[in-house]
Amino acid sequence: MKMNATATNDNFANxxxxxxxxxxxxxxxxxxxxxxxxxxxxxxSNLTDRELADIGLTRADVAHVFDADFVARREAxxxxxxxxxxxxx
Length: 89
Hints:
This protein is an all-alpha fold.
């Protein structure tokens, strides 16, 4: 029985280490991609409201372009719009 408890403790320790390495990897990816994300955000901020509307964004959307939830909601809205257009046609 002691062997099982040790194995369980080792599993928790390994899971903890994996979580720490995953978090470190996430931070490093954020640091590496920050300049590119900043450049895209700056370019979008320099567009006029009309130019933003042409690509389906508003000025308020610019701050959320890299937010995963925002992207998922935009993709879902686009798919719903396409489905509605197909249904009409």
